[in-house]
Design a protein that fits this description.
This protein is mostly helical. It is 75% helix and 2% strand.
């Protein structure tokens, strides 16, 4: 599992950041592009160097066994350094000096090499072994990596969270929050070195490769980073798919109400054979219009006193406040359909003006979904339908719904 995750992360890291480089080549300064490229390459190599495939490709041997761990950790430190440099260039401008973090990075990289060489770890199978003399230096090596990582990631979290909080709602803001999630996952990835320090202190050896929890944190980190960095590119396509799905779902959910109204007033169907011609969004728009046309066509069949009675009955039946209005609307339409079939009309002066919401298609569709649900399922509406059919001398199922 760990090896599979490692290969996946390398592909994701190279693919995601290569695409971002191509996408940003015309609108980002050259130095900033190098920082971005450095981060993507280092994070992928930091994982790849510890995989069995890389060991086989390098031919194994003493050199690889001894220095693969050091190379992987140096690449990870480099990735964090490039990420901080990229963020500083965004905050301070293209010409900004690298500053304190660059000095910290060079000192840490050099100190890590020295501590690793002095510790003289040896590889035995899947374990890195330490002598009693080298153990303190290797613990210091792990602690230094941990401290540098947490300082760098704390800086990145603070900056990206500030950017995300200040951004306008939309793909940019969502992408920044995904990057913040990636940094938080990297915290877990880095902090997992505490487990290595604990294992070293207890046993004097540590696993040479990434263990499963570390690989999972790495997967989440690189996944969130890649998604956040490329969100502005792929989010319109995903939003279009979800928009179609939401429109189609609403289209199907209001169909029972539309079917009953069309049976009562066939003329409301603008194009009876169209179905989803023109796309789900347009079909939903047409269906909302047709339902409202049916509402207006049945207006003279509305019982003026019914809404107040239904409201009281629905409240007594324990209908939640948020569903009362939809229940009243559904009951009123159900009774009006039966009144139209029986030919009963009410004086125009007694009929209240139509309360049609001045809202967009999505809001109107959401309202009609509630009405359609009450029209089909509400016991209050079923009781109104039964009572109206009995009063009008109709058989309870004769209205066609």
């Amino acid at each position: 599992m760990t090896e599979t995750l490692a290969y996946f992360l390398c592909v994701l890291g190279f693919a995601g950041f290569s695409y971002k480089l191509v996408d940003a080549r015309n609108n980002q300064p050259l130095r900033r592009m190098w920082y971005m490229a450095g981060f993507g390459v280092c994070i992928a190599l930091g994982i790849l160097v510890l995989t069995p495939a890389m060991e086989e490709l390098a031919g194994g041997g003493v050199v690889f066994d001894r220095f693969a761990t050091l190379a992987g950790d140096e690449f990870k430190l480099g990735a964090m350094a490039f990420a901080v440099a990229f963020v500083r260039s965004m905050r301070l401008g293209e010409g900004a000096r690298l500053g304190w973090h660059a000095v910290l990075t060079f000192v840490t990289l050099a100190a890590e090499v020295v501590l690793y060489l002095v510790a003289q770890p040896t590889r035995e199978g899947e374990l890195t072994m330490l002598t009693s003399r080298g153990l303190p230096f290797y613990v210091a090596y792990e602690v230094l990596f941990l401290v540098y990582g947490l300082i760098s990631l704390a800086f990145l979290t603070a900056v990206f969270a500030r950017f995300a909080a200040a951004a306008e709602p939309g793909p940019l803001r969502a992408g920044l929050w995904l990057i913040v999630a990636g940094v938080c996952s990297a915290f877990g990835w880095t902090f997992w070195d505490v487990d290595d320090v604990r294992q070293l202190a207890v046993t004097g050896f540590v696993e040479a490769r990434e263990d499963v929890p570390s690989a999972v944190f790495a997967a989440c980190s690189i996944g969130f980073f890649s998604l956040g960095a490329t969100l502005s590119v792929w989010s319109p396509s995903v939003a279009k798919i979800f928009g179609w799905f939401r429109a189609y779902r609403s289209y199907r959910r209001i169909e029972p109400l539309w079917t009953a109204l069309r049976a009562a007033v066939p003329g409301i169907a603008l194009d009876p054979d169209a179905r989803l011609t023109g796309g789900a969004e347009f079909a939903l728009y047409r269906r909302v219009i047709e339902i409202r046309d049916g509402h207006l066509a049945l207006r003279r069949h509305f019982d003026p006193g019914l809404p107040e009675r239904v409201h009281a009955n629905a409240r007594s039946a324990g209908i939640p406040e948020g569903r009362l209005a939809a229940t009243v609307e559904a009951a009123t339409l159900a009774a009006a359909i039966l009144s139209e079939r029986a030919g009963r009309c009410y004086p125009e002066s007694d009929i209240p003006p139509p309360q049609l919401a001045d809202a967009g298609v999505a809001t109107e569709a959401a309202w009609l979904v509630q009405v359609s649900r009450a029209f089909r399922r509400s016991e209050v509406v079923a009781r109104v339908r039964t009572e109206a059919a009995a009063e009008l001398g109709l058989v309870s199922g004769a209205a066609g719904y």
